[in-house]
Every structure is written in C-alpha cells, then in structure tokens.
From TrEMBL:
The chain crosses the membrane at residues 21-43, 68-90, 111-136, 156-182, 194-212, 218-236. Its main location: membrane. It comes from Paenibacillus forsythiae. It is a multi-pass membrane protein. This is Sec-independent protein translocase protein TatC. The keyword Ion transport does not apply. Keywords: Cell membrane, Membrane, Protein transport, Translocation, Transmembrane, Transmembrane helix, Transport. Pfam families: TatC. Belongs to the TatC family.
C-alpha cells in the first residue's frame, strides 16, 4: 500500500531526530565556547560567596583549575541551550499536532529557561548552603581535620544545583504532555504513590549521601509534582470544555 501523503516513515523520523540532535549539539558547543569567556567572572562570584569563604580550598591536581572552568562553562552552555532543546523537541513533534496544540505548545519554550533559572536559584541559595552546613557540622563533630579541595567543593555544589534545576522542568513537561493528551490529572493522581517513590529515589541518587540533603531535595520535588497535577487539571478542564463545545456545535448542526 502506498504511504499516505505527508506521512513519514520510521527512517525519516530517525533522520529528522538525528538532525535535531545535531542542531542541539552545535548550539551546546557554541554555548560552551561562550561559557569559557564567562567562566572567570562566574567563578569569582561563586568563590566570594559566604559559603566558599568559610573554607580554605586547595588544588590537589594540575587539572583542578581547568576542570572548574569547564564545569562552569558547561553550566552556562546548558542555560543557553535549554530553550533551544525545548524548541527542537517542539519542532520534532509539531507535525503531529493540531494547529491549536502546536501554537499552545510553542508558548512553553520561554518558560523552560525561567523554570531552569528558578531551580538554579532555589538550589544554590537554599538547598546547597543547608546541605553544606549539615555535612560540615557532622565532620567537625567527629573531630576530623578539614582539608577541602576546590574540585570537591564545586562537585558537591553542581551535584545538587544542576539536577535540581533540571527537575524544576517537571511542571512544564507535565503541561506539555497534557496538551498532547498523553497525560491527564486522573492518571497523575492514580500513579501518585509510584511517582513519589520515583522522586524520592531520584533525590537520593542526585544528592550527597546524607539525610538532610535528601530531605531538602525530596520535599520541593513532591511539591513540584503536586503543582504539576494542579496545572494538568487546569489544562484538562479547558480541553473538556472545548470538546463539549465542539460536540455541541456538531449536534446543533445535525439538528439544523
């Protein structure tokens, strides 16, 4: 049987996906190059913070300084690239969407950056200082001599801040999938216990091995999930109202 006009084969879908991924990688590399220029002022800002000033940080490897600059550059590049990633995802799925769904989903792109930045700020200014304070207090209570490396300090920071910032995209993902009618609040409430378990597991994996860090990350994730359910319910009610109005128009047309 011939393919329907406008339909894409699996091979064509894979080719399109590969093209989108290459676009993202190119933008990420460009952002990485730009991030290297921003690395020094960002490093100076981070190292002058009160949390960093509490320690004498050491370099234990010739690569520690370069490694810190590269990590900062990658973080900057991720901030720049994230909206582009969301746009490429929209461009990949948009041919299968209705015009109203396509325009609605496109409006989510700027919010990807906003949520990511909010996640960064929340993790850096709230979660990171509390987790650092707890781990240091335990070390001091044990009577251990503190000798911290610059790499350990920034690895600890990035292991908390970046995953937390990415997880702040959860409401946006849920809204997008609700628009596509893949998710709805009924399904989200039905799988709530499994979602909670998954989020707790993610929090334990991405945080340093202490209870306070796990707790500080788990609670915001659970709040984000409930907020996502609320947003999904809001969109779902609008979809039901639109479907009812469309059915009413068709019914009225049949009786005319």
């Amino acid at each position: 049987m011939p393919l329907q006009s406008g339909a894409m084969t699996v091979a064509e879908h894979l080719t399109e996906l590969r093209k989108r991924i290459i676009y993202v990688l190119v933008v990420f590399v460009i952002g990485l190059a730009g991030g290297l220029f921003c690395a020094k002022p960002v490093y100076e800002y981070l190292i002058e913070a009160d949390t960093a000033q509490s320690f004498v940080l050491h370099a234990f490897s010739f690569w520690d300084g370069i490694g810190m600059y590269m990590k900062i550059a990658m973080a900057v590049s991720l901030v720049v690239t994230l909206p582009f990633i969301v746009y490429q995802l929209w461009a990949f799925v948009s041919p299968g969407l209705r015009p109203v769904e396509r325009s609605a989903a496109l409006r989510y792109v700027p919010y990807a950056l906003l949520l990511f930045v909010l996640g960064l700020l929340f993790a850096y200014y709230i979660v990171f200082p509390m987790a650092l304070s707890f781990t240091v207090s335990v070390t001091r209570d044990m009577g251990l001599e503190e000798t911290y490396g610059i790499a350990q300090y920034f690895n600890f920071m990035f292991s908390l801040v970046l995953p937390m910032a990415l997880l702040f995209e959860l409401p946006l993902i849920v809204m997008f999938l609700t628009r596509l009618r893949i998710l709805n609040p009924l399904r989200l409430r039905k799988v709530r216990r499994y979602a909670y378990f998954t989020l707790v597991f993610v929090a334990v994996v991405i945080t340093p091995p202490d209870f306070i860090s796990d707790f500080l990350v788990t609670i915001p994730l659970l709040v984000l999930y409930e907020f996502s359910v609320f947003l999904s319910a809001f969109i779902y009610r609008k979809q039901l109202a639109a479907d009812a109005a469309l059915e009413a128009r068709y019914t009225a047309g049949d009786h005319a």
